[in-house]
Amino acid sequence: MQPADAAVEKALRSFAAGMIGLAAHELNNRLAVMRETLGLMEDLARAGKAGVAGTARAHASLDDQVGRALNIVRTLSGLGGALGSTGGGFDAGATIGDFLGLTERWARQQSLRIEREIASGLPRASGDPALFLCLTHRLLVGCAANLRPGGSIVLRADCYGAGIRLGLHPSGERADGPTMPGTTDDVINRELARRLGAELLYEGGGAPTIKLAAAP
Amino acid sequence: MSKARVLLVDDEREFAATLTERLSLRGYEASAAFTAEEAITAVAASAPDVILLDLNLPGVRGVELLMTLRQLLPHGEIILLSGHLDLAEKIEGVRIDAFGLLLKPVEMAELTAKIDAAQAKRGTHATR
Predict the structure, then answer these.
(1) Measured between CB atoms, does B55 come within 8 Å of chain A?
(2) Domain span including residue A146
(3) What is this model's ipTM?
(4) From A66, A70, A141, A204, which residue has the greatest number of CB atoms within 10 Å?
(5) CB contact under 8 A, B83 and A26
(6) What pLDDT, on the 0 to 100 scale, is given for residue B58?
(7) Are the C-beta atoms of B51 and B76 separated by less than 8 Å?
(8) Residue A210: helix, strand or coil by DSSP?
């Protein structure tokens, strides 16, 4: 295996492990709330303190938690579908949406706001969605490392010629972190872009942009 | 041995509020903090016997918070309680002498046994 192959393989494995970890974390938290809510209902019933209002509140909470858990499962399923697809291109907008659904907790921990602006009518993108997501994730983490808490990053996808352009636009107070261009990380990013058949640019202020070709 | 005074530190407000109520029903003097700042204020003000700490709070490195709380509460016990603990956090938790690591969702019997064991350890130290 060439050094570049090993680095890309490691990046892909690390990305997949990170996404699974985020999903497991979020599901564990939803299950924990459900378990405690059910436990409290039982505790109150045993103590003869269960009231109609409390029971209704508990039911509403359980319903909410089940809905949130289902969203995670659907997101994970969508992401799994994208990562498992072979050929035929992929829906970049939906893939970004699923990806961001799983990174919400990470963004909260970083005290960052992540928003998306996905143009309608994007063509299907060519290339391997696993490479695309891994690259997007690495660029997002790179942008976050350069921002202090309270900042925001907008992921903006629009049509660019016949293809798709995804820009990551950070705003907020800059941290004294590393900048992506020229770093070892960026060597791997450029290799991911090359294998994806995409162009990786750093535009005004160092905002990374991925230019993807449309699927044939 | 009296029941422990427990501070639960977790940004999952619904989880923290519900678990606090359940612990109170079991005789613990339980309270909750939802942010790192609230946790530091609560520990400085009331020096709980046992802290249940989620390391994944927004805007702060969990390990740094753990070290700060450990300094503020040298004779208290800290139990890590999280939906996910990575290896680095586990190693750091052991290094900083966390009393235990529990993964959510946790069984109440397991949790109260851990809290009681932590309180017993504090009692042992106090009588030395």
Answers:
(1) no
(2) 1-216
(3) 0.86
(4) A141
(5) yes
(6) 84
(7) yes
(8) strand
Set of chain A residues whose Cβ sits within 8 Å of the Cβ of B21: 40
Give the fold, CATH level 3, of B5-123. Rossmann fold (3.40.50)
pLDDT in tens, B64-116: 898 899 999 999 999 998 888 676 666 666 666 788 888 899 999 999 999 99
Tokens 């905002």 sit on residue: A207
Alpha carbons A59 and A51: distance in angstroms, whole number: 12
| 3-state SS class at B97 | coil
pTM comes to 0.84
Q: Which residue of B has its CA nearest to A49?
A: B25
Chain A touched by B42 (CB under 8 Å):
no
A165 phi and psi, to 5 degrees? -120, 125
Query: Which domain CATH number covers A99?
Result: 3.30.565.10
Nearest-CA distance B28 → chain A (Å)? 14
pLDDT of A77-120, one tens digit each? 888 887 777 777 899 999 999 899 889 888 988 889 999 999 99
Q: Where are the domains of chain B?
A: 5-123
